Amino acid sequence: MKKFGVGLLALVFTFAAHAAKNSKTVDFPHPVQVGSATVPAGPVKITWTGTGSDAQLTFAAGSKHSVTVPAEIVAQKNPDTAISTISVNGASYLQSVELNDVTLVVRNAPTATQSGN
Question: What domain count does the chain have?
Answer without folding.
Answer: 1
